[in-house]
Amino acid sequence: MTAPPPALVRFLRRAATLHRREAVRGAGLDIFSAVGMIVVMAGTYAAVTMRGDLARSVGVAATCGLLVFFVSRSLERHQRRASTPLRVARTLVGPLRDAGHRALARDLVAATEVLAAVRADAVQGSRALGATFVQQVQARLGSNAESLARLIIPQRPRRSRALALLVTAALLVAAGSPIWRTGYARALHGLDQSPLPEPSVVWRDLKFQLVYPPHTQRAEKTLKNPTGPLKIPAGTRVELSFTPRAPFEHAWAEWVPRRARDPEADDDIRSTALSRDPSGAWTGAWTVRSDGRWRVFLGHAPTPQRRRGARSAWMKMSVDADDSPEVELSARVRGGDETTDVGRVEIPFIARDDFGLSTVELVYETGEGDVFRLPIKGLRAGRKRWRKRYTWDLSMIPIDRRGDVVWWIEARDNDPGLGDGGALDPPGKAGRSALQQLKIRDEEAEHLANLRSLQELRAACVDRLADRLASTAFQPGKEVPPEAQLESVRAMLDATELLLAQMTTLVELLALDTRVRARDVETLAEIQQRLAARFRPQQATMNALPSPLASAAPAGVRRAMSRLRRQHAPTITTFEDEVIRIDDLVDAEVLRRFERLLARLEISQRRLAELLATLAAGDESVLPEIELLRARIRRDTAALNEARALLKREIGGEFMNTEALAGMLRRMEALTIDQKIAEGDYQGALQQAQETLESLRQSGDSTRRQLGDGESADSQLSEEEKARVRLLRALSRLHDEQSRLEQQTRLLDARWRARAQDTASRKLAETLRAKRRSAERRLEKINDARLSRPGRVGYEDAEIALESLDAGLRGDDGGPLLPLLDQARALERAARVAMDGAGEDEPEHEALRRVARVASDMAAAIRKELPSPEDKLPSEDVQAISEASESQLGLRERTSSVLDTPDAQALPSEGADALRDAIRGMQRAREDLERPLLDDGADTMEKSKDDLQRAMDSLRNRQPPPPQSSSSSDASTEGSRRAGLRKAVLDAMRTREDDRDDHPVSRFYEELLR
Description:
Layout: H1 7-49, H2 52-82, H3 85-98, H4 102-119, H5 127-141, H6 145-149, H7 158-175, H8 178-189, E1 203-211, E2 221-224, E3 230-233, E4 236-244, E5 250-257, E6 270-273, E7 275-276, E8 282-288, E9 292-299, E10 310-311, E11 315-320, E12 326-329, E13 339-340, E14 344-352, E15 357-365, E16 371-375, E17 385-393, E18 404-413, E19 430-432, E20 436-440, H9 443-470, H10 482-512, H11 518-544, H12 554-616, H13 623-650, H14 658-669, H15 672-679, H16 682-709, H17 719-755, H18 762-780, H19 789-808, H20 817-836, H21 843-865, H22 869-872, H23 875-900, H24 909-930, H25 934-957, H26 968-991, H27 1003-1009
Parallel strand pairs: 3-11, 13-20
Antiparallel strand pairs: 1-2, 1-4, 4-8, 5-6, 5-9, 7-8, 9-10, 9-11, 12-14, 14-17, 15-16, 15-18, 18-19, 18-20
Helix pairs in contact: 1-2, 1-3, 1-7, 1-8, 2-8, 3-4, 4-5, 9-10, 9-12, 10-11, 10-12, 11-12, 12-13, 12-16, 12-17, 12-26, 13-14, 14-16, 15-16, 16-17, 17-23, 17-25, 18-19, 18-21, 19-20, 20-21, 23-24, 24-25, 26-27
């Protein structure tokens, strides 16, 4: 076990430890005083000079220096005074002597040396004497060793403590000063917030090249030495170029967004390094996406030091706001707040945008909250103002969605969202017109309900006839009391009164049904009057009897029954005649409804083929319209299936092959066309649509042929009605062939336009600019207040066409020829429309005529430079153009021959005028194909096709002539039909007598139909 150290060693170690603690404490106090003084001085300096960077750097350097000084001084003192036991003993000599321990102070150093020699076994002399001396010194230390060891702690000077107190007070005072706190924070972060030197002009020949984003359709612009603020669209690329006034090694373009609070904060400044070209000019570029300020900085360091270089003044650069489009309904829409038919609504509107429109749609919302969108075609991309008269086909609205419909026109601009915030509702921003309400009633559904009511009326008439045929109340000699017979007759009369009321209501409904002929309504009203004439005497006889009948005199009862028996037989005959007439009305309405639905489906299928031809030519913008049209065709197919079943049930299979029609409708309901469109097989979808159209046309021809030739056993059509049906069949065939010819021409025109991408020559461009200025001067002199409403519309369209021409001719060279041609033709059409709205004696009429002539000259000049289809199209397409011209000639001759037939007398005057317009249009179309002008030819063909449709509509809408007087053969036929009806009703009563009460309605007529 190791012996404990002597007491003298412990005393010296304790004294060394106390000295070391005091040295550390003293150094800490000195460091606190020095650092506190530096903090106060640095904060004060930064507050006064705003050079926080300099105050921090000097303060950190001074603090580090003082820290090293005080620490090294304390280490040196401790090393010199208390690093060894002997140095500790020598250091204690003075304090022990001052404390009155002179003997101990004299002997402590000697005892320490002797102890060290004894322990090192290096004693010279008596070892026992040395140990005795050390023990004596230790004995004198005794219990006072701790207090004597503390004598080694030096006394701190009062000035050192005073200085620490003074520094503490200075820190407290400075911390209460806002100015000092600001300076301290500036020094803590090293911010140099001293005033910058005044900016100066650092460049010569400053040049801005502004490259606008594509959606603005603006040409690049060069600005030299701009002085004011710039206002440019978001996304504009700014290309900067300047020559410095003084040489510098580095340059930057600095951009600060407007939202920045401190324009000099490094976090907000966006620097773009500039490069120097061989000529010594500095160049660079950046893209502006928000409002802000910019400047140029030049320096000698590779990083920006804004207070050590030359800089320009801040210059503002703001973003030109891209507003949402505006849509205005230019006229009150007919039926906007009224109940309207399932037909077409004309919607005139004007859409505007500051940079350009991208899409315009008709949006409508049904009562269930479903939103449907219909694209409006014809908008040229980037157009800033578009006036359009859109025709809304209300039959596109699903049947179960008709009723209250809210609609509006919605336009989107071409803003791609190039600002910092991007686009809120991409693509583009939406603007819409005021909300409009439309109440739609489905006339087809109303007509079908009226037809069913007519069938129920027929069944009720048959029931009333059956009641009279089966009744025994009118047979004399029966063992039935007269009172019971009268009660039975009263029940029959009450049922007849209810039947007449039902007939009156139905007459009122049919009078409001636009799909029912006026002659049929009159016929039903006459039937009601004849039945009422038979009913009123019998009702008067019954009313003359007292009630109850038991109180009547027996003689009066017998006389009443005798009178009712005499009226009974004529009533049966009248009922038989009227049932036959009502049956004829039902059959006629069923036939007409079937013919109408078939014609409507044929028109829809023809339109589908036209849209698929456009789609096959590469225009995919028609896809939404195709989808809506396919939905309409599916609804019409379902309605035609229902009409076919009703036709078969009413007339039977002798009228037409309904099973073949059913097979064709099942093929139409298949989704093969939708599948082909989804797979991208547009040609296959077009071929299938054309095959379906041909099948429909054949079915329509068969129906019209049977109606016209009287193949139906029950057909009672007059010769004029047969002529009308034959005309419908012939015009429908001409319409189909004209439509196919138009589709073929548009396909050829699309192929030619894809290859004819030539641009106008410089000479042609100058000629067009001069003519455009001439037309503009003439338009400016026109007072549009003197024009009619259509004339003002044409005038505004002419201004729009002039703007489009100006945009196409802005470049140094002329633009593409085809767009220029389209714009010139649009100007000519608009000028002629406006000219028609001006009085012939007004100066506006002559001015507009000259504008139209200038536009015609422009179109003719453009056509001279356009390549012909023979130069661009392959030989097979050129041959197809020649064949189309010959086909158009043959079609014109066939149309002319229709007017020369006796059947043409059935055409109303408006239909004959439409047919003559179609013939003239076919002649112009042939001339256009011979020049060749494919687009003009296709447009003229479309106009001729519309004229043919007008002629067919005039035939369908014409009221048929009154029925011809019945001949003897007709009378015999009527008699045989009456006898057949009576026999069938009696047979039905005999076969179903047991369950008669279980089938109160139409039980007899069901047997009749068999």
